[in-house]
Design brief:
The protein is α+β, with helices and mostly antiparallel strands. The protein contains 5 helices and 9 strands, in the order E-E-E-H-H-H-E-H-E-E-E-E-H-E. Helix 4 (about 105-115) packs antiparallel against helix 5 (about 160-165).
């Protein structure tokens, strides 16, 4: 008799290990993603514990025009153009980005993401819903922040299958305007 084992799944992500949950009740996915990337770049490694990310109120305050240390308040609302909000968060968009992957389904998009080199990435989708996510590709691992669920670590070789499994719950639209930004400081 041959045993068939189930693919491990966490919150709909296949082959993923959850590092911490997030509480995005305020719908500030861009703020969660940009804050996590900024803190990870400052620390020189992916932030693996929630810290400030436990508080959607603090995250929202940071990104809604409240004074930041040594900076003028921003008048840019959350969810505005990433070309504006990323630099305001201290994130420099790398040359050649954003990239708009040609795709006909979720699997194509996430295969394209997994083909990117090591680095820090900010991801947006503008239609049929508005959402922002973030990931850090580091060797054979991908640290993926889905603000609605938490931070996961996924084997890079399984990234496309893992993320496709989760996002397949949302209807694919050929006009989804998905963008990938590689960012640094």
């Amino acid at each position: 008799m041959t045993w068939i084992s189930a693919v491990p799944s966490v919150d709909g992500f296949l082959w993923a290990r959850k590092l911490f949950p997030t509480n995005n009740v305020r719908g500030v996915c861009a703020a969660f993603s940009q804050t996590w990337l900024t803190l990870s770049l400052i620390g020189g490694a992916p932030v693996k514990n929630p810290g400030i990310l436990r508080s959607p109120g603090q995250i929202q305050a940071i990104h809604q025009g409240r004074p930041r240390v040594g900076a003028q308040p921003s008048s840019t609302p959350l969810g505005s153009s990433s070309l504006v909000t990323l630099p305001e968060s201290g994130l420099k968009i790398q040359t050649g980005y954003p990239k708009l992957p040609y795709s006909t389904n979720w699997k194509d998009i996430y295969a394209y993401l997994a083909s990117q080199p090591d680095g820090h990435y900010y991801l947006t989708i503008k239609s049929p819903f508005r959402h922002a996510m973030a990931c850090i590709i580091l060797g054979s691992e991908v640290y993926y922040l889905e603000p609605q669920k938490g931070l996961y670590v996924i084997p890079k070789a399984k990234t496309s299958d893992s993320l496709t499994a989760f996002y397949s719950q949302y209807t694919w639209s050929s006009g989804n305007d998905y963008k990938i930004y590689q960012v640094g400081t």
